[in-house]
Amino acid sequence: MSVTAWIGLGSNLESPLQQLHLALEALHQLPETTLADASPIYRSSPVGPSDQPDFLNMAARLETDLDATTLLKQLLRIEDAQGRVRTRAWGPRVLDLDLLLYGRETIAQPELTVPHPEIPNRDFVLRPLLDLDPDLTLPDDRRIEDLLRECPDNGLTPVTLA
Question: What is the value of pTM for the model shown?
Answer without folding.
Answer: 0.94
